[in-house]
Amino acid sequence: MLRSILALALLTCAIPAMASSFAGTTGGASSAGSSASSNSSSGKDKVVLQARDDAASFVASEGRIRGAQLEAAMRHLREHNADARRASDMQLAQAILAL
């Protein structure tokens, strides 16, 4: 149940970031390049999306590898979501990967 709530909360946080990333793309341009250079109001939500590689490393290493982007995303989520405050680091990392 908690995982479902976290996934929904993360997805809700990420939707504005995904929308702004795709809005800035043109044919052949990548959304990663557009989102990396963009400094819009959804920039904090992009922190969560950009932490996917770090989250994958964290999960694969059973919590031994803690990247800076993952740390920033977890901090952001816990500041803005009560369910995230109650979740373990592993649960948050898995939820980030589920996006």
Automatic annotation (TrEMBL):
It holds the Pfam family DUF2388. Residues 1-19 form the signal peptide. Residues 24-42 have a biased composition (Low complexity). The keyword Signal applies. Residues 24-45 are annotated as: Disordered. Keywords: Signal. InterPro entries: CHP02448. This is DUF2388 domain-containing protein. It comes from Agrilutibacter terrestris. The lineage of its organism: Bacteria, Pseudomonadati, Pseudomonadota, Gammaproteobacteria, Lysobacterales.
